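Now for our target.
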Amino acid sequence: HTRWGQRLPWMVVGGLLTPIVVVGIFAAPTQSPAITVIYMVTCTLLFATTYTMFMIPYMIMPAEITSSYHGRTQLMSFRVVFSSLGSMAGMGLGPVLLATWGATQEGHIKMAAVICGISALAVLICVWLLWDAPRGTALTKAQPSILAQVRSTLSNRPFMWLLSAKIFYYMHLSFTLGTFAYFTKHVLKVSDVWLGSILTTQTVVLICSQPLWMWLGRRLGKRTGVMLALAIFATAHLSWWFAAPGDPIWLVVARSVAMGIGGGGTFLLTQAMLPDIMEYDRHMMGERREGLFAGVFVFVEKVAGALGVAFVGFFLQLMGYVKSTAGTSVAQPDSAILALYICVALLPAAFCVAAAVVMTRYDLSPEKLAELRLRAAAS
């Protein structure tokens, strides 16, 4: 209960602490492996905490701002656009800064400081723009235990199918983001500037594809739209299996464009489904539990991402990947090159297909929500 509402104070605190923690991650001590591990575990836990402080209220607010089924898709398209601009600043500007300052620890710290400064400014602008947005009322009655609430939440069938699809999707993202820099360096044999150009192209296309996916979401429905986007994403990933040093520029750009189109639809429509599920639960259960759904959603995102990164590290080590430090380049054995192909092409495509199969069970339509609203109004 604050005069700024329930959400904005958490967003300010979490959103400003997260950039500080991220800079600290890049400043990890490297003199002792034991100290490095302890330091990184601590920073990772702090990051997960501060990130969650921001993300849970941020993900709740769309359900409070509008109750329109297609209006939520339009609202989330703005979120996708500006989130993608942030990703472009990070993933596109990062490699360019590293190419300028060198891929040393000092260069990484400088890069993190610049990008995190942009992030902190974006948080303040976001909160300022949401100052007069509609706000939900604070809960006044006693709530069941967290375990009981989570158990009840997991009985929501549309949420469980969306959550299952998102697990595969986040695993796919962790594989791609965790290995693509290595793929461009050791497979395509291009500099970090090229990596930045590829990621920037993908993000620009993702942003420009939003009107297309809003239209398809209206014509085909969100579920079918997500499945189509995942199919495009899977095909784009498979195309990297045929990539090789010296590929023509147009072919690399075409792959990046396809990934941007697929990512644009997947990102937008799955994000637009969560507010629908929150409203569905409110009508079915007679309670407001938006925070719980957002919390479980963020928790699964972090767990799936962590498992993906852990598997990537284990798999690359198993396949003989030779790690390097201080920006040095090390020749990789054929087995490590094969592992990079698998992590960038085959496994992400398989995860996208698995997510699309799961989405066939999602059945929360605008007609079902409209029927629930009529029942609520009648009672």
Summary: The chain has 13 helices and no strands. The longest helix spans residues 249-285. The CA atoms of residues 80 and 268 lie 6 Å apart.
